[in-house]
């Protein structure tokens, strides 16, 4: 009577057949590059569920021998074994056991957190239901894809990969038996934790298989005598891009919550694996070069040697707990010669560092001061020093140190906003602070092009003259970098040579009401900028490198606004393609004909034009002049492409160093600075630190790509002018240059439109330039 009542009560609460026929197997979040290389994997691993036909018969036999020898005879419930289990529960002494494979599967599907009696009864009912609706092979397939094998492996495919780096079909008999032996207590029997216990349980499975004639005596002997070979294998990461991986993970969790790392999502990013590797390497090399140039800060620790064998054991113990940062390994100094040293790695290997790998280590005093070069290794290190070592470009060991400075690099496709590469810092595992998206720092002169574009849009030309002269202020006197003043100079010359006073006068002449709405066209948040603050003109308002790079895409693509994006598409293990990016695309030819009310292709959205194409072209020529004649001249020497343009930025006391540059295919911004703001050194500028990093990246990234610079629009004319007056030059006038103008703004011989602005109309802080 009680059993009948329980059945009538519990039976309607059993899950419907589709809940276990089409069960959503937990799969990790996987993140890929645009060229299908694995960047990261997050979440529980129950990957690559297998079909029954792909499961080796010996593995099935091992499972049945260990867990349910009467699997093919019962209808889901083994009454004899179950009776023992139920009696144990009722008597208060549960003995375990009694569950068939089908009942274990039923438990795995449902009934968490219920009383033992209720749970067991529901398991029985669901097991019977499963056996009626699935055949034995389907039950085994579902079981072997769901069951927990320990650590983070759910399913036999995950377990095979995790412990043996194999597929199920590649497992040996001893390996199959070891995996099946884990099932009663995966964490307790784990071969990585207790080898002897695991060996005992594995051999029990083999013995049971022999007793049931599933294997021969010779198979048993060979497998039984085989030592354990299990190891902890992880997934093979093909692209080192942890900052990108974290950006995607956060985005996915915002979209899907906790399902993001359990529902089998595969995210394909816009990042190219080769370009990403070039970005990471360029930033790493640049930060390390800066750091070495400013001297050696000394060992991370020192353990006084006792001159006994115990020293090595002590050092190895400390090294085992010291993480590798970037490519810099920890090591202890064992011996010192006059111009070499012997160092102990955590592997126990001793390496020799020759003088070429030590001689750089002048003693650091501060960011602007260091001692002269050392003459011997003993001036640099002592025995017992905990140091960092790495390999140089010739694969030789050298003394190194983790940079105190940090920075970022981001590269964007200006034609659709796709992020091509992103390095958010020196080492993600040392600091997961993403300096591309989270660091808000003053851009200095990196901001000036947006102001100059506003001027061009409002009647100024590249040849307009503004007085580069001191401002008459009682409270302070702003200056140019270097302290010199040149008098009347053209806008193009002022931008090329980053003249602060010209930018200040320009901002004052235009005014907040004109400048602020204009810079918003570049995607910058107008509301964040202070009003009535002339220092905005020279980059005093903090921006992220992502915001700066995104704003520069408007120059690179000829005047259109695109939005940076990282996720190209999202696929789901259970549901297929669930998201496809639809970025706005730069399309000059279709701009005029686009009709949003009559759109033929719903996946195409033309990017909106935000600045006049004539203005964009003139700005390209002015920023090209920075490369040929200004602070970016090193780019012209080392890369030599005719399609590159950009602008440096250096802030007060050299706290922040920037370079943003582009061609028609890529916009790249490099930012360098300390996380806790301080000077990078009195002699450091963007041209000496940020520009070399930009060069290292762009030279590789653009290798083999055709020249791609903005075509001259129909509304642009080229005029030969006198650079000192801005007027059209006479036919035989010496020193004349060619300059580009909007057709309606070209100078005439007697034009007085370039009259000087009032030299005393502005004020500003004197160090931004």
From TrEMBL:
Pathway participation: Cell wall biogenesis; peptidoglycan biosynthesis; Glycan biosynthesis
Domain Penicillin-binding protein transpeptidase: 407-678
Ranges for domain Glycosyl transferase family: 36-209
Transmembrane parts of this sequence: none
Catalysed reaction, written as an equation: Preferential cleavage: (Ac)2-L-Lys-D-Ala-|-D-Ala. Also transpeptidation of peptidyl-alanyl moieties that are N-acyl substituents of D-alanine; [GlcNAc-(1->4)-Mur2Ac(oyl-L-Ala-gamma-D-Glu-L-Lys-D-Ala-D-Ala)](n)-di-trans,octa-cis-undecaprenyl diphosphate + beta-D-GlcNAc-(1->4)-Mur2Ac(oyl-L-Ala-gamma-D-Glu-L-Lys-D-Ala-D-Ala)-di-trans,octa-cis-undecaprenyl diphosphate = [GlcNAc-(1->4)-Mur2Ac(oyl-L-Ala-gamma-D-Glu-L-Lys-D-Ala-D-Ala)](n+1)-di-trans,octa-cis-undecaprenyl diphosphate + di-trans,octa-cis-undecaprenyl diphosphate + H(+)
Record keyword Transmembrane helix present: yes
Matching Pfam families: PCB_OB, Transgly, Transpeptidase
UniProt domain Penicillin-binding protein OB-like: residue ranges: 296-405
Gene Ontology annotations for the cellular component aspect, listed alphabetically: outer membrane-bounded periplasmic space; plasma membrane
UniProt topology in membrane: Single-pass type II membrane protein
UniProt region (Disordered), positions on chain: 748-769
Main function: Cell wall formation. Synthesis of cross-linked peptidoglycan from the lipid intermediates. The enzyme has a penicillin-insensitive transglycosylase N-terminal domain (formation of linear glycan strands) and a penicillin-sensitive transpeptidase C-terminal domain (cross-linking of the peptide subunits).
The family this protein is said to belong to: In the C-terminal section; belongs to the transpeptidase family.
Protein name, UniProt field: Penicillin-binding protein 1A
Source organism per UniProt: SAR86 cluster bacterium
Lineage: Bacteria, Pseudomonadati, Pseudomonadota, Gammaproteobacteria, SAR86 cluster
